Fold each of these.
Amino acid sequence: MRPFGERWRAPYACDPRASRGRLYPEAPSPTRSEFQRDRDRIIHSTAFRRLKHKTQVFVYHEGDHYRTRLTHTIEVSQIARALARSLGLDEDLAEALALSHDLGHTPFGHTGEDVLDECMARFGGFDHNAQALRIVTRLERRYAAYDGLNLTWETLEGLVKHNGPLIDAAGRPTLRYARRGVPLAILEYNALQDLELSTHAGAEAQAAAIADDIAYDSHDIDDGLRAGLFDIEELREVPFLDDLLREIDGRYPGLELSRRIHELTRRVITRFVEDVVREGERRLAALDPASAEEIRRASEPVLWFSAEMREADADIKRFLYARMYRHPSVMSVRRKADDILRDLFRRFREEPQAMPEEWRAGLAGADEARLARRVADYIAGMTDGYAILEHRRLFDVTPELR
């Protein structure tokens, strides 16, 4: 394995000098690469700032030390850059994709996405990846010349396809879209700028996607332990975590709990990162790609866990699903958040004038589908706290999310 600190550009990396460009052409920057400009635009966006007050698992007021969408995003970014550096990828593109991967998430974590998906079922549903694309191509309104952030093709491609192709060679939806089809927002944008939905994304997008998995596994263990949803000894049910705990206890007997938790989570990240680098090097050696295009045309991702670590990842996710995501206290808050968002969606559809002027503008004579999508856009952009405030403004009783 190549030393983690050594940097070089591999022939299969996405090259900002050879970018396919932006939907609206712009003069190059004299001080930043095209992917650095994308990263900077994402960081300065309104949607990125809102991540600070959006739930990861725990609602914003439950404690200062639990992850929010923003802190999760920063951790994903760090891991993605480490993977990119180790494998000779473009670090700035990997970082931009990591920073943008959760822009489309709603308030109250996955509860919000589930609610909006149900509310929008008659109008194409709601998908956070499609919503992220809407944000960076339409909903952010900062620049005089265009809506959105006018990101490069490579960043948009990675944002949409980081989990793999959306359609097969025959045009049939794949993966999560097999049942309901590719979201309309993605298809509409793809008609303007072909993102090649039947291919994989570049390796930088794959790095951001698997960094997301690694961050989830490590920080949800950390947050769950600190919240008291399960005990550290219960983690021994997962063989991978049991091995790590034995290693820690053998080296640091009697270690205080807070340090023991940190030693565990840092080892989770390290083991997964090192595994992805090794497996990535193996897959890249077998494919021997001479360009980023060959990565896209490959039959499978080049960045993934080994078989052993895929099993560890699945075991961790099963444990967390049962002990954390479905814990009675978490489910209680989710049900109350569900009620808040359903109430808001129903009220804004019935009374569009209850939305701020910028959101109700142009809705006169709008059909049912257009109105519903505008309402979904408005609600999806809310922070947890703003959704609660809007509910208190419009309703006599608002659930306490505790």
Note: The CA atoms of residues 238 and 316 lie 7 Å apart.
Amino acid sequence: MNEPAPQVIKMYAAREEIYPREIKGKYVSLRWLFVWLTQLVFYCTPWLQWNDRQAVLFDLGARKFYIFGIVLWPQDFIYLAALLIISAYLLFLATAVAGRVWCGFACPQTVYTEIFLWIERKFEGNRSARMALDKQPPSFKKFAKKTGKHLTWALLALWTGYTFVGYFTPIKVLGSEAFTLSFGPWEWFWVVFYAFATYGNAGWMREQVCKYMCPYARFQSSMFDKDTLIISYDKERGEPRAPISKSKQQTGNGSCIDCSLCVQVCPTGIDIRNGLQYECIGCASCVDACNSVMDKIGQPRGLVRYTTEHGLVNKYTPAQIRERTFRPRVRIYTAILGLIVCAAAASLYLRTPLKMDVIRDRGSMGREVEDGMIENVYRLQIMNTSERGHTYKIRVGGLDTLTQVTADQVVVAATETKAYPIRLRVAHGVGKPGSNKIDVELTAIDEPSLHVKEHAVFIVPR
């Protein structure tokens, strides 16, 4: 008896090349607006100057983050955590309101894919021309077009990698190093790595990143409900599908003429008429495509549109959909997000750009010096996080007769950390044997409101 042949189950479908068709419409224009805005911010920000330095610079070597007039240190990590929380919360809130609107309009993968597709069209032509070119046998013309496209992609990717590293190494310094090809090893690595990632993701993988690599596509549905705005096909109005006749549409058929234009413009190659799919990135290209067809055949727009599941079923008006979109759940989320933003902004505004740690010299315990006085030695670790240098006055207190032997003024330059040793003494018999609490206060002479006080202990020998 012959055994049945083993079945091979493929866990990954072979990729079929997708040739998105170019379309015009308000959502395409909106997406290009986001492309311009995001790339102007990304490419131009490192070149902005602030107080004779780069306006935005994450100097990992010096452990300082410069963001316009704000200088953050490792001790300010809480603000970075707050920024990440706010960003994540904004993404989740946007998803609850309008589905994958971030993916469709502002995600770097979408933005760079759109740019790379534009370059591809300039070299290879429209959708049908690109499909025909790929089917052609090798030729000089085909080689020239492909080579020009890939060289342009590579140059853009390298410029993107250079700009990315410019956020961590001063971009003017990076520019002089690029001119002489004298990058450091880490600079070479990150420029090439980021360029390779941009070239590979936007030029080759494209929709594969959204479908298989992005985790957001997998858990987005957990943030949807029946009042979330999604791109939907109005099946009741569109079915049954039938091509339009030369004279007029046949009676009894739906509005969908089965032109498949909504499929041709989709960057992930799905058919929105099959319902919501996790591959849909919410770019709304199919909405613009379908609306253009409806205009041509004299049908109302909106066969494919942004709407909600409740809106489709209950035939809500746009006003009713908006009212239910900003439902109590979303309003509560917005209020919580607003409170987090306000709290973080207030904390950042009210923070003192001066930090001090008082570290007692453990190698030199409390000791008796001349005149029978007791002396302790400390090191003040002073961090001036502002962009102005200051002279600070040191005051001590907490014990009677507590005096400072060393100079009571110290100069700390802008954005500098300085270790300053001080020696404190008290008269014999003052304080209890063992630990005694004392205070060390630091005040800027030219700006008295800039001050900080820390506690320490003074050791009296037993």
Note: The mean pLDDT is 89.
Amino acid sequence: MHSQLKTKQRLLSLDFFRGLTVAAMILVNNPGDWEHIYAPLEHANWNGCTPTDLIFPFFLFIVGVSIVYALDRKKSDSGLFKAILKRSLILFGLGLFLATFPFFDLATVRIPGVLQRIAVVYFICAVLFIYTNPNYFFKLFVLILMAYWVLMMFVPVPGFGASNLEKETNLAAWVDRAVFTEAHLWSLSRTWDPEGLLSTLPAVASGLFGMMMGLLLKSKTQSQSEKVAWLFAYGFIAFIAGLCWDLIFPINKSLWTSSFVLYTGGLASMGLAFCYWIIDVQGFSRFTKPFVIYGVNAITVFFASAIIARSLNLIQVTINGESTSLKNYLYQLFYVPYLNPYHASLAGALTFVFIWYLILWLMYKRNIIIKV
């Protein structure tokens, strides 16, 4: 990781959209009380999609768009593959560090994870971008979605029989247990993982979707208005296709189903179209600063906020003879007495987001962008 000055022109709407997504990620990951969360701020129990379920696919979509902007002029660089590999390994390593922090118990470390999936999707999409013809992206996108549908819906699951989409008996869960063993999967299940191996395949398609929309945005043959129209049109078509496919292959974040890719990718494309039109085309940008500040240091705030949140849970304080974490003590002191449980939980999360905004604002004022 290194710091650098903000010397190159960036697509402001993309930084805004990325920042909005990351700020939402920090919000839903840090409620004051996990027992009192408003429904839109929780993941769907299994099938279905809440606003919280949109955050990760939106980020992978943004990764795809960013690849186009970051690598388009560097395709001829001899050291580009090495740089892509290095960045991917650092991201994966940061994910493993988060999985082991603070006890670093390698015997039970969760190998899959959010940063690990970002690393894999980035690596595959970036390599495809620099070594293959963009004309093949859509064909590959369709092939991935269809192949995953066939695997999940028609391939028998060893030890369980017919294909199914239940939590512990679907093919993706079986692959996770076979490859990682239960000791290295998500601690809340140990029998399947929401960022598992097989479901990373359609996650790559989410990145591909972003790359295709990024190429559209960078096109020199279309006007800005045409770009907005096509971004929205492709997004709307994907959104409707996802809803239709949901009838036979349910929208499901944990399985990252093909319908989920289309549904979320469509919404992301329409969302970016709106941001691009308002911010970059119409020039209404004054409101963007708080989220741009989040967007230019997205990985930094995701990683650091997780470390700080866990550290606050580790620090124990004694109140009235009872031991509790510093995080819970502060929450009980400043929020619980004054608000109902759900309001208090949300207020705690918003405070965490705001504190990180102040930290990122100081970095932004000093022109510091920490790149991974």
Note: The CA atoms of residues 71 and 130 lie 8 Å apart.
